[in-house]
């Protein structure tokens, strides 16, 4: 039996650059407009909460999660717009998690996406509320969005999102993270932390895209495997960037993991081995999509681009 | 045309006591068990987040909102258990709002329901996460709960809850509240604040109970009117209790509104007129339920009991 040869290896041989797919910027621009529609204008009473919400959701972020939802939907034969509510809901949940994580009582970060954190601009109380409001609005969007989605599909999406954002997912990960500062985590604990804190929402994005397309069980399995490997590769490169990235490109301070004595893939494996591990996961991600053939091109490009990321 | 004579006036004449209906305690006990089922045990990893969630949801609270959901469902011919997921979701959202409101960066209250506030026990970071987790879990419960609810009904409930908990409801109210400390609010602003901060979730509870029973438009209108008046009466008596209640009964400090120079119905109208206003709203609430006849007895008892509350 011939060994499977992941696209990434072929591309690397051909000298193709590892940059984000062009369609990422196109989808990001569409999602920006959709998000703008779903967030009431800043003139709405009481204005400050809408200002605080919009400050952290609009005008920044790579929209990776939204892109995953949209492309997972398209790859499964769905119309892109059917994934827009899911994409917006996920970006809102992502933004809420960043606002709350940046609070002084959590990770205490003053910068995010190249500008002062939400609580530095609006105060801590308002930042807590803005996060709460975005989380709440995400679920409302999934109910209300005027797209061709049946009630049962919307319920499946809300299940997916609430499970990923909850204690078995993102909040569980942040809990472990908060408790682990200054401690050296076992590798298995680090894997659980990352799968929960970062991986769960990335997986939910891909799966919600699949749900929007009404995809079958096999395809959903493949999507899930892709997203799990992609999420892990993304987290490893995040750890790498915290050591070797430029804060001006990242839009946040670097070296913060080491300063907080946080366990990361780099602190465990060293820089070179962490890079090799990220590459291994990207290859696994690409392999997972074999059954989609050429339709997987965008998601394969996305996975590859993780290895070249500088932000 | 004969003037409508609300039940409350008849009962008062008969000297009936203004105490909470017996069925409130029965429903509260059932909901306590349901909530316990929906919250993973404290042994689940990572334990502290489950401990923090359970600390603030279980073993306390009057369960008024849960009762409203259950009784609104029954009054409309639905089975009580069809309202349990809604009742639990609302109690989780209520508990989350109390945890976040009590934070030092918000109302900075050290006691709640007769015990130290969540952040005094678990720390601020964990209290933020516990609130986030309860809000998230509320939506998950509405999707997952194994009761006879169609997907479309669940979506209607999630819409109702997310709208009530969001910026046009509870979070909007808390925003106005945060911004109004030390300022004298106009009466109209105070009404908006209370309708949003307290009233919206109470109204959602009644309406979600109606949805669980598959009720019609007229009945939903009546339920809504009842809940609006009930919510206002409840808020006014809350303000009254903050002035004249006993902190040992209330489980929290009294006099905090005056200390924070918060505008309340008592600061606006004085104690006696505030009491009269509460009674007027209770009468309106009872009148709203005329079309339900005897089936409204429990909700009428509940409304009346607000005037006799000491906690």
Task: Please give the structural blueprint.
Two copies of one chain form a homodimer.
Chain A (H helix, E strand, L loop, with lengths): L6 H8 L7 H17 L8 H11 L6 H12 L8 H19 L8 E2 L2 E2 L1 H5 L1 H21 L6 H15 L4 H11 L6 H26 L4 H28 L2 H4 L5 H4 L5 H5 L1 H18 L8 H11 L4
Antiparallel strand pairs in A: 1-2
Helix pairs in contact in A: 2-4, 2-5, 3-7, 4-5, 4-10, 5-7, 5-10, 8-10, 9-10, 10-11, 11-15, 15-16
Account of the protein in words:
- Two copies of one chain form a homodimer.
- By secondary structure, the first copy, chain A, is an all-alpha fold.
- Chain A has one domain (7-307): Farnesyl Diphosphate Synthase (Orthogonal Bundle), CATH 1.10.600.
- Chain A has 16 helices and two strands.
- The first copy, chain A, has helices at 7-14, 22-38, 47-57, 64-75, 84-102, 118-122, 124-144, 151-165, 170-180, 187-212, 217-244, 247-250, 256-259, 265-269, 271-288, 297-307; strands at 111-112, 115-116.
- The first copy, chain A, has a two-stranded antiparallel sheet with strand order 1-2.
- In chain A, α2 (22-38) packs across α4 (64-75).
- The longest helix of chain A has 28 residues, at 217-244.
- Chain A is globular, with a radius of gyration of 19 Å.
- The first copy, chain A, starts with 6 loop residues before the first helix and ends with a helix.
- Chains A and B meet through α3, α7, α8 and α9 of A and α3, α7, α8 and α9 of B.
Helix segment tally of chain A = 16
Secondary structure tally: strands of chain A? 2
Any idea of the CATH topology of chain A?
Farnesyl Diphosphate Synthase
What strand order characterises the main sheet of chain A?
A: 1-2
The fourth-level CATH homologous superfamily of chain A is Farnesyl Diphosphate Synthase
Structural class of chain A: mainly alpha
């Amino acid at each position: 039996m011939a060994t499977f040869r992941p696209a990434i290896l072929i591309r690397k041989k051909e000298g193709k650059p590892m940059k984000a797919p062009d369609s990422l910027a196109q989808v990001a621009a569409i999602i920006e407009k959709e998000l703008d529609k779903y967030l009431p204008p800043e003139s709405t009473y009481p204005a400050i909460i809408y200002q605080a919400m919009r400050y952290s959701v609009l005008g920044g972020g790579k929209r990776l999660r939204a892109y995953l939802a949209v492309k997972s939907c398209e790859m499964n034969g769905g119309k892109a717009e059917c994934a827009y509510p899911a994409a917006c809901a996920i970006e809102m949940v992502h933004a809420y998690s960043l606002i709350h994580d940046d609070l002084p009582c959590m990770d205490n970060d003053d910068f995010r996406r190249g500008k002062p954190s939400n609580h530095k601009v609006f105060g801590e109380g308002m930042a807590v509320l803005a996060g709460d409001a975005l989380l709440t609005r995400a679920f409302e969007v999934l109910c209300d969005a005027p797209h061709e989605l049946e009630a049962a599909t919307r319920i499946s999406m809300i299940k997916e999102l609430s499970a990923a954002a909850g204690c078995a997912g993102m909040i569980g990960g942040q809990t472990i993270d908060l408790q682990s500062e200054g401690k050296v985590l076992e590798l298995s604990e680090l894997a659980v932390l990352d799968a929960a804190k970062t991986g769960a929402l990335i997986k939910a994005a891909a799966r919600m895209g699949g749900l929007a397309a009404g995809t079958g069980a096999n395809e959903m399995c493949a999507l899930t495997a892709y997203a799990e490997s992609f999420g892990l590769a993304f987290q490893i490169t995040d750890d790498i960037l915290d050591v070797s990235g430029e804060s001006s490109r990242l839009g946040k301070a670097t070296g913060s993991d080491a300063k907080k004595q946080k366990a990361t893939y780099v602190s465990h494996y060293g820089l070179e081995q962490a890079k090799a591990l990220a590459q291994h996961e990207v290859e696994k991600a690409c392999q997972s999509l074999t059954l989609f053939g050429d339709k997987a091109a965008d998601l394969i490009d996305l996975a590859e681009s993780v290895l070249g990321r500088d932000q």
